[in-house]
Amino acid sequence: MEISALQKARYAYQPKLPANIAGAISDIAVELGKPTDSVADQAALKELFNHTYGKPLAVFAKGKGDADKKELTVGVILSGGQAPGGHNVIAGLYDGLKKGNPASRLYGFLGGPSGLIENKTMVFSDKFIDEYRNTGGFDIIGSGRTKIETPEQFAASLETAKKLNLNAVVVIGGDDSNTNAALLAEYFLEKGSAIQVIGCPKTIDGDLKNEHIETSFGFDTACKTYSELIGNIERDANSAKKYWHFVKLMGRAASHIALECALQTQPNICLISEEVQEKKISLNQVVEQICSSVIKRAENKENFGVVLIPEGLVEFIPEMKKLIDELNDAMGLKGAEFVELSSFIDQLYWLSHEISEDSYKFLQTLPPEIARELLMDRDPHGNVQVSRIETEKLLIGMVEKRLAKLKAEGVYKGKFSGLGHFFGYEGRCAFPSNFDADYCYSLGFGAFLLIALGLTGYLSSVKNLVAPASEWVAGGVPLTMMMNMEQRHGSKKPVIRKALVELDGGPFKAFDAVRDTWAVKTSFLFPGAIQYYGPPEVCDQPTKTLKLEHQ
């Protein structure tokens, strides 16, 4: 297989481990704290997780353990969307197992959770794992979005684990995947099985975090990748001086990526979905905010700029959310009728009788191509596929229309030309930054220790991430501690709570203090490409979000 020069060089990189797990395996023990509670809905969750609720926090410490004496057989799953560093989680898990006992084995379940259900596996070897160290992607075993949720799927998962004589299953995924891990841990114990389940926190969206999980892996690399591209666009905009670039960024439920990229690149506008929701900002108000910046910059002869838009923005705009909810309800009840309609005009007429008058009027104000996207792109449950709505084009069109009116009134005298971009898949499989390479390897190694020291129902954790890697502290957080009950598909379900951007948090406050200046004055920052070799202040720094959260 032909490989690039960087890939070859990255194979040789040795990830750094926290001091509390870097020594001899025989000298690592686990310290357990007091029993824990879930973040909400304690009574309901205690009933659902009768065997795993209330477990204590775990921290690895110097002491006599027996992690080096056990011959273990473990299976690992990559679940959900890709995130930089996943290969290093598996490498850390593999190295831990082999360091503990060279006879230990690691199975990879192919294609995500379905590999566990259907017993599709491969066995890792030194040669194979070495070809993936410190590289991006999930192609080592592939990922998938299958959820283990039916009685048959749970039973098949346990049957597979027994056939392979597994001691444990490691689930590498986001909030939904690790909710699945918690349910799997509970199910195994309920059925009298000692097979352990451990999770690892993955998502580039950055919304799987709390006081004990400081960040999810992949967020650092993805944001640095997007910020390089945004910086390049800013430089181009400042060179050509004739385009406004509207950049949509991944992050459907939370705006962490948009906010971090704004802190790294200092665009003219960055929209934060959580603020839009909190302040009930309408679509027209969003447009007015952008137009205000365009007009003021035009007065300075700067007919260019950059706007960052979180992927899920439309779901947070009150009138758009109302429209989407009503469309989902109408399609859910009468979807068969709707699909029989052959033209856009017929669809609009049908909807005039199925949704509220306000929502129908709002739908008619949208650019036709956006309205078509709302009506045509449905997921398997009949819901609007919000991530496929071209919000950047929606805003460009509405800003263009508003500015034309203001120009006719003599308020605006500049020139506006908008260009749309969507940065999403470009960041999910990038070569992991040194931070993510170290963090992910530590999470995988920590997962091995949680298994070897007899724990189940835990998420591997590494804390103190703003310090050098040697000062990080590895341990484990009970999965049930992060859960609450939420309405999903008509009934209450246990889920790990998503962490949204906090408007009173350090990162947003830092952004809020300077955004009015950025809106008018060109203040662009150009972070450049991720650096792997050089001084720590260039190569090993965590995100600005992480630093500001721990000031």
Automatic annotation (TrEMBL):
Regulation of its activity: Non-allosteric.
Pathway: Carbohydrate degradation; glycolysis; D-glyceraldehyde 3-phosphate and glycerone phosphate from D-glucose: step 3/4
Catalyzed chemical reaction(s): beta-D-fructose 6-phosphate + diphosphate = beta-D-fructose 1,6-bisphosphate + phosphate + H(+)
UniProt keyword terms in alphabetical order: Cytoplasm, Glycolysis, Kinase, Magnesium, Metal-binding, Transferase
This protein's GO CC annotations: cytosol
Family: Belongs to the phosphofructokinase type A (PFKA) family. PPi-dependent PFK group II subfamily. Clade 'Long' sub-subfamily.
Protein name: Pyrophosphate--fructose 6-phosphate 1-phosphotransferase
Source species taxonomy: Bacteria, Pseudomonadati, Spirochaetota, Spirochaetia, Spirochaetales
